[in-house]
């Protein structure tokens, strides 16, 4: 199974997926890491680990449609069975999302449907919730509202800052995202008629 991972920055979720894929010998090939920013730190990790990288700078394209067409062309070069959004900070157009229906995953740093969008940790602190977390979901045209695959909750502590809360959530992201991607490449995770089917693995 070919996986293409899309990043915009640090790439720690991408890194967690690459490390797990190798350590656990998934039946998968991380075919490429693609970024919309040439300065995404994660590109260096990918290259250092022998993974092809590509940059499609969104600023080079006058419209979202033009950018997404170029992005899709780049992704297609790697014949992906699965496209993994890992801190990819561009909103994708409906045609691109439709093209990868049922084979594009995202991780969002909140317990969806709470706190879609940006600054999720600040949103959680402002709302005063006692539980926060992360969600892996299939990507649909409805931003941050695709069918939920996995979630993990963490406590919100009285003295939390955005940073301390983000760090606690990120630790969980690095567990649930590789597990979800592994389920997909092992054929245990599918989306059919808008419903998620997830069969348990052995380890
Ligand atoms: C993560 O918190 C992810 O949930 C969100 O953006 C952040 C990306 O971090 N979408 P990284 O690039 O994976 O380190």
Automatic annotation (TrEMBL):
Binding site for (6R)-10-formyltetrahydrofolate: 64, 89-92, 106
Formyl transferase N-terminal domain span: 2-181
PROSITE patterns documented for this protein: GART
Site positions per UniProt: Raises pKa of active site His: 144
Protein name: Phosphoribosylglycinamide formyltransferase
Keyword Transferase (UniProt): yes
Alphabetically ordered keywords of this record: Purine biosynthesis, Transferase
């Amino acid at each position: 199974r070919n996986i293409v991972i899309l990043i915009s920055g640090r790439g720690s979720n991408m890194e967690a997926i690459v490390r797990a894929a190798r350590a656990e010998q998934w039946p998968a090939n991380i075919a490429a890491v693609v970024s919309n920013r040439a300065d995404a730190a994660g590109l260096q990790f990918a290259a250092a680990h022998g993974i092809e990288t590509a940059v499609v700078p969104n600023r080079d394209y006058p419209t979202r449609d033009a950018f997404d067409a170029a992005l899709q062309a780049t992704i297609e070069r790697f014949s992906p069975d699965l496209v993994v959004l890992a801190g990819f900070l561009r909103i994708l157009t409906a045609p691109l999302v439709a093209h990868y229906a049922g084979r594009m995953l995202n991780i969002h740093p909140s317990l969806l449907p709470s706190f879609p969008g940006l600054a999720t940790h600040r949103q959680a602190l402002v709302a005063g919730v006692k539980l926060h977390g992360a969600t892996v979901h299939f990507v649909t045209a409805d931003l941050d509202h695709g069918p939920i695959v996995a979630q993990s909750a963490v406590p919100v502590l009285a003295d939390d800052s955005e940073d301390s809360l983000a760090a606690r959530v990120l630790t969980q992201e690095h567990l649930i995202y590789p597990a979800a991607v592994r389920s997909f490449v092992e054929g245990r995770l599918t989306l059919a008629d808008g419903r998620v089917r997830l069969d348990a693995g052995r380890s």
